[in-house]
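Anyone up for a design puzzle?
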């Protein structure tokens, strides 16, 4: 995986939404939804972006897709910078990055048959040579997501939620992308259907060499399908590591708390549930220093004043936490009990 080419590289991405007030609607403040996020994804790799609701995960995905202008930062897709690219130049590059949305029903036009839904990106990007080639591509897309060919003539409302999500995946694949952004793509589905869609996406990734940015709050799903995990809190990434390292030995107190809340299959397994105190601070007025210090069980004076930097350990495991500047014997993260995933 490490030798595969980088498909997407995001550097110091920021998205601040203005708050307008008064008669003239002048800006009176900002929502710091995403405030300095950096990561990269290689061909054939899945990077999962996780965290509580409101932490900025979906805003990162929409920013990468250029669904709104960025406040600052760089987004490089297949070696080309797209964050400042004019719409006319960006149009053809959009084929390389597609999205699967959370709600499989509202993301499909109810007035279009499935054939037309899947054919739309093929026509928009000029991929089909003629009508016969278009029909062949639509049939191939349906077959790829394990749907029968006769599904092409039906309407979205005639399908179940899981089948509609397969149609959404087929539409994304029809553009022949290099990377797919999955924004909570399985959160609206039943448990058994979730497993089917996750297995399908894993199979497609192996078959097609796709890169994926998988945005989710479901750590059990993430643990099953990802290669690397980036943990977000209040607009910033606080930890990045490969799946085994992060689920086995988290290096940030927030990640440790998230993992301790995940249900485990074995009810007799020993686990230490960590209950965070207080609410998530407002992204309008984020705390000084470490943004997690208002809820951290290990907070120090330094945390309230100085913002920690994402720093790698010897294995490349990145964490933004001042605890790792302490001697190993004094670092409470080194003494923490087993998390849900360690116990499982």
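Challenge accepted. My sequence:
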């Amino acid at each position: 995986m490490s030798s595969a080419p980088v498909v997407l590289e995001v550097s110091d991405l920021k998205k601040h939404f203005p708050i307008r007030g008064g008669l003239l609607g002048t800006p009176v403040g900002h929502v710091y939804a995403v405030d300095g996020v950096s990561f990269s994804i290689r061909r054939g790799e899945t990077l999962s972006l996780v965290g509580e609701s409101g932490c900025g995960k979906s805003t990162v995905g929409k920013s990468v897709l250029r669904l709104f202008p960025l406040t600052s930062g760089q987004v490089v897709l297949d070696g080309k910078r797209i964050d400042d690219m004019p719409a006319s130049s960006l149009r053809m590059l959009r084929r390389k990055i597609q999205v699967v949305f959370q709600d499989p029903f509202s993301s499909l036009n109810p007035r279009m048959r499935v054939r037309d839904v899947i054919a739309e990106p093929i026509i928009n990007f000029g991929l089909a040579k003629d009508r016969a080639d278009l029909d062949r591509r639509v049939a191939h897309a349906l077959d790829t997501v394990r749907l029968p060919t006769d599904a092409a003539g039906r309407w979205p409302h005639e399908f179940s939620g899981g089948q509609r999500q397969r149609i959404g995946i087929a539409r994304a694949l029809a553009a022949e992308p290099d990377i797919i952004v999955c924004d909570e793509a399985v959160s609206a589905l039943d448990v058994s259907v979730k497993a089917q869609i996750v297995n399908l996406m894993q199979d497609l990734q192996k078959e097609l060499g796709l890169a994926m940015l998988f945005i989710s709050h479901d750590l059990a799903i993430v643990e099953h399908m990802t290669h690397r995990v980036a943990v977000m809190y209040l607009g910033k990434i606080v930890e990045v590591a490969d799946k085994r390292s992060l689920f086995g030995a988290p290096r940030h107190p927030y990640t440790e708390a998230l993992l301790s809340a995940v249900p485990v299959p074995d009810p007799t397994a020993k686990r230490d549930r960590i209950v965070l105190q207080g609410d998530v601070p407002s992204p309008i007025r984020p705390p000084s220093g470490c943004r997690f210090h208002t809820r951290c069980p290990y907070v120090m004076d330094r945390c309230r004043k100085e913002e920690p930097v994402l720093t790698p350990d010897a294995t490349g495991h990145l964490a933004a936490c001042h605890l790792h500047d302490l001697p190993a014997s004094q670092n409470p993260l080194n003494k923490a009990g087993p998390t849900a995933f360690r116990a499982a």
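A detail worth pointing out: Residues 337-344 have pLDDT under 50 and may be disordered.
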